[in-house]
Amino acid sequence: MNSASCSASLVPPAVKPLQLSVTFRWLLGLSALAVISILIWQGATAQGAPDPVANGRDPAAAMLDIAVLVFREGLECILVLAAITANMIGENRVHTRPVAAGAGIGFLATIATWFIAVGILQDLTENVSALNLQAATGLLAVLVLLVVMNWFFHKFYWGGWITLHNRKKKELLGHVDDALLSRNRLLLGLALLGFSSFYREGFEVVLFLQSYRLRLGNELVMAGSAVGLLLSGTVAVLTFVAHRRLPYRKMLVLTGIMLGGVLIVMVGEQVQEMQLAHWISTTEIKPLTDMLPAWCGTWFSVYPTVETITGQLLAAGLVIGSYFVARSHKRPVGAVAATA
């Protein structure tokens, strides 16, 4: 199977492309303009110079980061599920039910994992200081996000992940009439595909959000997650209920760019937490102290210290470098949405 046929199999061929009306385009443009205006207004009215040892960020900025993280993972989950259920039409539509059931179990397992992670971190706080715990969990989250944002990783692993699910689905459905394959085994296999598609992303989200929860508390994390879930749910309804063929690749690229911004913010926050925990030194760049506006620290965690700026530049270099390395390699046969 070549990459073109794999990409085409994401959506049933009978589905018509989603047509955006002129009114919708205007509303979308006005919404974007409103968001940009709010950001400019917030930056212009922010008072004070950025403090490299100050802890905390603007709640709206943090909530936006969380929403982007959740939406990005939700979009990748929808892409995998769309690939699995693409050809389940007509008489085969009944096979979408165990996949949906597996995804539902994956959602419940994600919630259970959240409470388990919270319990483990609460136990650790009895023996480890809060600053050290925040620095440790934040460092782990940044490392995982670096892997998620690695274009070279996506080219060979993410495409293989979708291909593996499609191959397993074909094996199950290809032997559906085989006497050796019982109906229960077929249902279980499809349910496991749905479960693994959802829980893989859910586990990453739980891991990401623990660092935010320790710094910001449960309420803000829940609010940002709700926004991300609402956006993901909208895309899921359009994909699986309204049967719309959405521009998945463009959406993944767009959210990937936004996630790159989140990565820069997380790295800045992480370096700052490591400074507060006295894991690393704090070397202030005095010429930048007065030059950097307050909103750079509020929204992007850019502080006038050698350590924070160096860390953010290294993270950006790794992501951009992996993108060009991935482009220099030929796309492997069977890779799906590799450039996402």
Q: What are the low-pLDDT stretches, counting only 5+ consecutive residues below 50? A: 1-20, 45-55, 332-340
Instruction: Determine the structural class based on helices, strands and strand pairing.
Output: mainly alpha
Compute the number of strand runs. 0
Major sheet: none
**Secondary-structure element sequence?**
HHHHHHHHHHHH
- The number of helical elements comes to 12
Indicate how many domains the architecture comprises: 1
- First and last CA, distance: 19 Å
**Estimated helix fraction:** over 70%
Mean pLDDT: 76
Amount of beta strand: under 5%
Rg to the nearest angstrom?
22 Å
Shape label: globular
List keywords for this structure.
mainly alpha, 0% strand, disordered N terminus, 340 residues
Question: Could you give a short description of this structure?
Answer:
The chain has 340 residues and is mainly alpha-helical. 74% of the residues lie in helices and 0% in strands.
Task: Kindly describe this structure.
With 340 residues, this protein is mainly alpha-helical. The protein has one domain (58-328). Helix content is 74%, strand content 0%. It contains twelve helices and no strands. The chain has helices spanning 3-8, 22-45, 59-85, 96-125, 130-148, 151-174, 183-216, 218-241, 248-276, 286-291, 294-300, 306-328. The chain is globular, with a radius of gyration of 22 Å. The chain starts with a helix and ends in a 12-residue tail after the last helix. The model is unreliable at 1-20, 45-55 and 332-340 (pLDDT under 50).
